[in-house]
Amino acid sequence: MTPTNPKKRKTRASGTLKEKAGFTIALGLLFLLLPLLYSDTPQADTLSRGLLLPGLLALLIGALLLAVDRVRRHRTAANPPAQATESPQ
């Protein structure tokens, strides 16, 4: 089953990638800032140490997703897909 409009499909997919990157970055920031919302307790110290690595990894993955999205948009803008035209016979 082929899509009726391939350009629309590509646009929707790149927007989804950008949304995933934004969500991942927001989640990473939440992981890093969540211990600051708690008072100085031993549990908050343990929580901050435990969420440091997942927060940093989420930020890194989000940044990579944004970079991939930007590269994909740059490539499609530089090389637009060729239009298939039928020649009259």
What does this structure look like?
The chain is an all-alpha fold and 89 residues long. It has one domain. Helices cover 78% and strands 0% of the residues. The chain has two helices and no strands.
Characteristics of this structure?
89 residues, mainly alpha, 2 helices
SSE layout and pairing:
Elements: H1 6-37, H2 42-78
Task: Please give the number of β-strands.
Answer: 0
Largest sheet: none
**What portion of residues belong to β-strands?**
under 5%
Number of domains: 1
Q: What is the approximate shape?
A: rod-shaped
Low-confidence stretches: none
Radius of gyration from the CA trace?
21 Å
Share of helix, binned = over 70%
SS summary, helix count: 2
N-to-C SSE string, H for helix and E for strand:
HH
Q: What is the CA-CA span between the terminal residues?
A: 29 Å
Which structural class is indicated by helix and strand composition? Answer: mainly alpha
